[in-house]
Write a structure and sequence with these properties.
Layout: H1 3-8, H2 23-33, E1 45-50, H3 53-62, H4 64-75, H5 91-95, H6 101-109, E2 112-119, H7 142-154, E3 158-159, H8 169-176, E4 182-191, H9 205-208
Antiparallel strand pairs: 1-2, 2-4, 3-4
Amino acid sequence: MDLYDVMRTTPAVREFTDDPLPDETLRRILDNARFAPSGGNRQGTHVIVVTDQGTRESLVELYGPTVRRYVAQAKAGQSPWNSLEPPIPTPEEIAATDVPESFTEPVLTAPVVLVVCLDLGVVASTDQDLDRVGVISGASVYPLAWNILLAARNEGFGGTITTMMAPAEPAVRGLLGIPDQYAVAAVIPLGKPVKVLTKLRRNPVEEFVTRERFDGPPF
């Protein structure tokens, strides 16, 4: 596929057919995705390929509390898990919130689930002393995660980057044998999409790009 076509038609895929994702295809996807940039080219990523159904079920169980807060905040009209304000719903309301199947089914039904980890010992977290949630470390792992989805699209497959495992990271480390210095950056279910979207809705350039300053004129 043409590069721009891939960029414009790679959606978040959460529904998969029963088609398998052959190892040779997954290897080709990862072999091309690995050329993503990272800080200092230190390439501090590790990808775990999960197919075992019991492991998937354990992962889904671990991120249940994260999803409950996400859904409860969304129902309360709040941007879920934003780092600027505490949750509006009470802990009791969050605990009583159901976990929608749309959050669990991708991990349970995709032929392959990738757990993408980042070695915090080799990334330059230059925002670590700022009084806000750190985001800079992601520059050394999410280009790889996105490359995986672009490569999957080119192969006729799809998936989505999920981050619901983060609050349960210690338990995920124990489940998958991940060393303590690694962060669980993303969980990516991959498979053949039930529906292939070709028209995505995104904000136009002039709505989020300005000249010279944040409050400058639209580009």
